[in-house]
Structure formats: structure tokens, C-alpha cells
Design goal:
394 residues, mainly alpha, three-stranded antiparallel beta sheet, two-stranded antiparallel ribbon, 13 helices, 9 strands, globular
């Protein structure tokens, strides 16, 4: 298995390198990313530690995150993408080094985002190299994620229960739309292990999210809180959007990507239809700017003076490239191309020696929490480079 997967990965890398030479956008971004990531790694190595960059602080210095942070896999994932885009062994070696520093993550059960953490690091690395030693880590990670599955509600609980403010009614079993992204780990673990229980959990969660997260216009709320034993919906809320009934842009991006990915594994037409509906909501929205890089929330009151979210744009672009393969002639590739080309302009693509050596500028973490507003973010870089790998192969 390792040999065949490695040969496939090598062939993909050759194709991507060829496309890089012919595609000026891919070449520009990859050349810029190569210089900036080299500087980023040099700065990390100077500390004598293996650190995981996520964003910058107010003074412009790089902010590093720990192994329990949901974003910790995106830096090694970005390095894997660089290996795919260039075929250069140095990127594979660096990706392995940073990925394998996360081995203990496989046992994390305190939140649901182990799928992000292992999917962008070990799972991506397994696809690129076929390393057999990554398989048990992927499978154990799926087992850890499944400890958060609540059979009565049929969902994977995102965060732990919250007692609410000053004893008021809080969350019992909160599920956020982001959780759709963690299902890829379960589908892959099922394939690798032959254990259908992982797939069954993923399908149950996707079905419940389809039933309860979406509005009539195909937009989604951020948080649905369930009764843990019965699955009855207690409330629809937001944590990172403008309001409970607003359309938080990155949440819409997670929904688009998540259901496109679920269709890849299941061929369930309901998932494909939902992905199309979400794409239509995003792409036809009157508040989507001309460059297709959305404001942080489609309903933010200060538009057009609200911050943009390059991370949401990158996720949308990556999803649209995949969706194009299932729905040709819908114009998805054209829209994805427009997004990645917008992000390659000076308005979003940073220059070497700036932006903490992150690739993209102008992303948003959480405005309601006052965190990471108009800054670079590691996952923006990851999904942007992933989008470029998909652009190159279409």
C-alpha cells in the first residue's frame, strides 16, 4: 500500500510542478510561500523547539499555539501542501518533522477538533507518502473523536456542557457547523480499518446537521444545542457570528466544504444537493464583494466597512474546486479561480519579511470575542494552498 500510494503522490507532485510552471497564480503564490515558510521555519529552529505558528500579536510577533489547540495541525498541513505543489523533498522532510511532533494528539478527547488536527497533518501526510506508521495514529484519533458521539442525539458533541451565565440555562450538547470538517477523519479511518462504526457516526452527524442547522435559504447557524438523551433541539445560537440569526461567513464555508466532502465518501445525493444550495447562497449573496472575499459575517451591520475574512474565502475556493468535479457546468471552477486570483493580489498576499511570515493577510478569528481580527491565520494559509493544489489538478 505504501508503494502504490507513494507512486500516486509522486505522480501528483509531478503534475502540480508542471502546472506551477504554466500557471502564473500558482507560481507567484508558491514562490512567495516558499520564501516565507523558509523564514518561518528558521525562526522556529532558532528557538531550539518545535513550535506551531497560528497568527501574530498586536506588536507583530508570531503567536505560537500548544498541542491541544484545534489549529495546531495547519502548519504541518501547509508544509505538506508545499510538498505537493513543488515536489521538493525539503518540504516533505519538514512536514514529517512537524507532523510527527503531534503524535500525542491522537488521544485528545476534550473537544471535537481532533479531525482538523490530525486530518491536516497525519492524514494528509499519509496520502502524500503512504507511511504505514501513520495509520494507527489516524485510527486512534478517530476512536478519540467517537468518544464525543452522543447516540441519543445522534451527533458528535463539539464543546462540553456550559452552565450558562450566573446559573442561567446554558448549552447541554452544543454542536457547531465547524464539526462537519472533522467527519473526514472518520470516513478515512473506516476505510483504513474496515470498521464501519466510524462511517456510521459520520453519517449520523451529517444527517442531524442537515436536519437542524440550516435555514430555508440554505444559510446555517453556528451552534445548535441538543438535549443529549433525546436529540431535541434546545436552541439555535452563534458564538463567532454577528447574531444568532446572522450568516457567519466561515460557518457557511465549513458547511459548503463539509457536505461536498461527505458526498465524496457516500455518494448520497442529499449531501451534494446541500452543497449546491450552500454554494448558491454564498455566491449569489448581494453582500458578497466583487472580489469574492466575504466580509466576516454576511449580516454584519457596518458593511462595506467591516473586516474581510480571507480564511473563509480560501475554504470556499477549495470546496468549489471539488464541487466542480461533482457538478460540472455550474461555474464553480470559475468562481474558485476568481477567489484564488483575488487572494494572490497585493490586497491579500503578504510580502516576504512581513505579516509574521504568514502567506495571507486579512482574516478574522472571532469578532464577538475580540480575538484575531484582521490578522493572518494558519488555516487561511492551509486552505489557500490546498485550493491551489486543487486548481492545478482540475
Amino acid at each position: 500500500m505504501r508503494t502504490s500510494l507513494h507512486l500516486v503522490a509522486a505522480a501528483v507532485a509531478v503534475a502540480l510542478v508542471s502546472c506551477k510552471a504554466q500557471d502564473p497564480v500558482i507560481k507567484t503564490v508558491t514562490d512567495t510561500a516558499s520564501a516565507m515558510l523558509s523564514d518561518q521555519i528558521a525562526a522556529i529552529d532558532a528557538t531550539g523547539k518545535i513550535l506551531f505558528p497560528n497568527t501574530i500579536t498586536e506588536d507583530g510577533s508570531v503567536k505560537y499555539i500548544g498541542h491541544r489547540d484545534w489549529r495546531v495541525g495547519f502548519f504541518p498541513g501547509t508544509l505538506w501542501c508545499m510538498y505537493e505543489l513543488t515536489g521538493e523533498e525539503k518540504w516533505k522532510n519538514e512536514a514529517e518533522r512537524f507532523t510527527e511532533a503531534l503524535e500525542d494528539v491522537q488521544y485528545l478527547t476534550s473537544h471535537h477538533d481532533i479531525g482538523f488536527m490530525i486530518g491536516s497533518s497525519y492524514l494528509r501526510g499519509y496520502r502524500d507518502t503512504g507511511k504505514q506508521e501513520y495509520i494507527p495514529i489516524i485510527i486512534q484519533s478517530a476512536k478519540s473523536l467517537c468518544t464525543r458521539f452522543r447516540p441519543g442525539a445522534g451527533v458528535i458533541q463539539s464543546w462540553d456542557a456550559d452552565k450558562g451565565w450566573q446559573g442561567t440555562r446554558g448549552w447541554e450538547c452544543p454542536v457547531i457547523i465547524d464539526n462537519m470538517m472533522n467527519l473526514e477523519l472518520l470516513f478515512e479511518a473506516s476505510k483504513l480499518s474496515g470498521d464501519e462504526s466510524f462511517r456510521n457516526v459520520a453519517v449520523s452527524h451529517a444527517d442531524k446537521t442537515l436536519e437542524n442547522h440550516f435555514r430555508e435559504n440554505a444559510s446555517c447557524c453556528h451552534v445548535v444545542d441538543y438535549e443529549i438523551e433525546t436529540g431535541k433541539v434546545r436552541s439555535h445560537q452563534t458564538a463567532q457570528g454577528y447574531a444568532h440569526e446572522s450568516s457567519w461567513s466561515r460557518g457557511q464555508a465549513w458547511a459548503l466544504y463539509g457536505y461536498t466532502m461527505c458526498y465524496r465518501y457516500t455518494s448520497d445525493p442529499r449531501y451534494l444537493e446541500q452543497a449546491r444550495k450552500v454554494a448558491a447562497f454564498i455566491l449569489n449573496h448581494p453582500r458578497l464583494p466583487e472580489d469574492l472575499v466575504p466580509y466576516w459575517d454576511f449580516d454584519a451591520p457596518g458593511i462595506p466597512d467591516e473586516p474581510r475574512d480571507a480564511s473563509a474565502a480560501a475554504i470556499i475556493a477549495s470546496a468549489l474546486y471539488e464541487l466542480e468535479g461533482y457538478s460540472p457546468d455550474n461555474g464553480y471552477r470559475h468562481k474558485a479561480d476568481k477567489i484564488v486570483e483575488s487572494l494572490a493580489t497585493d490586497a491579500y498576499l503578504a510580502r516576504r519579511g512581513t505579516n509574521g511570515n504568514f502567506i495571507l493577510m486579512h482574516s478574522v478569528g472571532s469578532i464577538p470575542h475580540g480575538n484575531e481580527i484582521d490578522v493572518p491565520l494558519s488555516y487561511a494559509d492551509y486552505y489557500y494552498l490546498e485550493a491551489l493544489t486543487r486548481r492545478a489538478l482540475k
